[in-house]
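HUMAN: Mind sharing a backbone?

ASSISTANT:
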Amino acid sequence: MPHPGLIRAALAATLAGNAATVLAQTPTEAELARRLEQLAAEVAALKAQLATLQQQRAGAAPAAAAPSAPPPGAPPAATPAVGTDAARAQPSTTLSGYAEINYNRPTRQTQNTQADLRRLVLGVQHRFDDKTKMVSEIELEHAVTSADDAGEVALEQAYIERQLNPTWAVRGGLFLMPLGLLNENHEPTAYYGVERNFVETAIIPSTWREGGVQVVGAFNNGITTQFGISTGFDLTKWDATSSEGQESPLGAVHQELAQSKARDIALFGAVNWRGIPGLLLGGGAFSGGATHGQAPSARVTLWDLHARWTPGRWDLSALYTRGTISNTATLNAPLVGNPTLIPRSFDGAYVQAAYKVWQQADYTLSPFVRWEQFNTAKSFADLGPGITPDALPNERVLTAGANFQLTPGVVVKADVQRFKQNKDNNRVNLGLGWAF
């Protein structure tokens, strides 16, 4: 059995060596977190051995020792002390979640004022070992779910991730698509305003998820990549008698891995660069067939470019996205006469500025302003004179308000929204949100 002095020396050497490695390699945040988890597990194992030796030397039973457990997320110790149950690091299971309660009061049609528990999401992550984890989230919308209520229960994510090496990981299952700034980071504490912006709701449907396989790469130069294959949209479910397609063309035909039609497979990819502190530049693209063997064939393509810069107290962001659907003239021919035909193109853009004007202890006040323009039917394929629908006008929305952080993870929001086209949508919004 090693001498306690040797154990202490090994512990010090482990801490010094790993710390030097972390500082020397300037890893990405994800790689740094993984290395720190590994370091914590090694330290826990060494502490366990040291405690056992000390007890044996004092004549105490090894079972009396209660070494410190590794922090949540740490991998199992590689060499736990023999006969010490407490030293056997267990797989880590963590609980997360977020929720938002919103109040919306139209300034013209006050009879439509509404309060809603918009959503409550609970997530569970389980780490099987230092390289393999499961991520899942289940969402409850509108507080009550039944045959007679508008509520919904759905899975937002359910996938396995395997770390192949310090740079590459692979995911398989149901995951959020890596387009835009909001879709993968949509907790109420992560964005400004009571409601999610229209561009990343009507054009990039929020929260958009697909089933498939993706490869994730994180490089030391600040570049991260995501690319893979996935399920896609189903244009055969387009309802030309409903206004749903006009509210969000892709939101009307998404499948969410609920018995999804999967004859047509989509390709997607995203690249982001964080090489300068506070600056994010990136973009993503998605393209896939959407009729699944039923004539006529059609393809949905969506792409975006985005930027975010946080110098000092400022938080500045901008995004542009555009989507197209091919062969819509043939798709729309049997639908002529209905109010909502399939658009050929749709797009949107926004710019946003926020400023942390006041901070004291955990309290933070951040006013913001956002201008956005979007069009869910930018153009239609030509069906002939008198038949081809007119393109919709661009809707422009100005939102001004503030986020007030009570403590990290809890936010109170208020804003005013003004619409250029449909002024009946002008409203005042209040919100309460949390995430952990």
